[in-house]
């Protein structure tokens, strides 16, 4: 079970970026997926997640209305679309997976597999 997060980069405030979380060795459709981020000197925090069963999505208050999560099952990939980016969104972004699940939580231990992280830098 491997996850590969990609798509990070440098973007100006107000801009957009799409992160990808690609899976190998398993079918991502069967997994609840969470995106977390960790800014320098801060704890890792949950940002957004989507359940395996039902496809329900949950958002941290800080990203509501700006970030969306989606799946492309044919590509075995989950996307994090980030719009109206702010300097405080600067962080390393990680995707994480847990088999099945009707709910998802912004708790690190809930997830059993993690990608390596991709850096997003938002300049003011």
Written account of the structure:
With 124 residues, this protein is mainly β. Helix content is 0%, strand content 51%. The chain has no helices and eleven strands. The strands form two sheets. Strands 2, 4, 5, 6, 9, 10 and 11 form a seven-stranded mixed sheet that branches. Strands 1-3-8-7 form a four-stranded antiparallel sheet, with no helix packed on it. The protein is globular, with a radius of gyration of 13 Å. The protein starts with a strand and ends with a strand. The relative contact order is 0.33. The mean pLDDT is 95.
- First and last CA, distance: 37 Å
Low-confidence stretches: none
Sheet with most strands: 7 strands, mixed
Number of helices: 0
What is the N-to-C order of secondary-structure elements (H for helix, E for strand)?
EEEEEEEEEEE
The proportion of residues forming helix, as a percent range, comes to under 10%
Strand residue content: over 45%
Question: Outline, from the CA principal axes?
Answer: globular
The gyration radius over C-alpha positions equals 13 Å
Key terms for this structure?
single chain; 124 residues; mainly beta; seven-stranded mixed β-sheet; four-stranded antiparallel β-sheet; 11 strands
């Amino acid at each position: 079970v491997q996850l590969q997060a990609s798509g990070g980069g440098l973007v100006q405030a107000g801009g957009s970026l799409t992160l990808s979380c690609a899976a190998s060795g398993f079918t991502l459709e069967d997994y609840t997926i969470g995106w977390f981020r960790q800014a320098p000197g801060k704890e890792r925090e949950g940002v957004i997640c989507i359940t395996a069963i039902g496809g329900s999505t949950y958002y941290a208050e800080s990203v509501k209305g700006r970030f969306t999560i989606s799946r492309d099952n044919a590509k075995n990939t989950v996307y994090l679309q980030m719009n109206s980016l702010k300097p405080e969104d600067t962080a390393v972004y990680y995707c994480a997976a847990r088999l099945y699940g009707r709910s998802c939580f912004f708790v690190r231990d809930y997830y059993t597999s993690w990608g390596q992280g991709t850096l997003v830098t938002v300049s003011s």
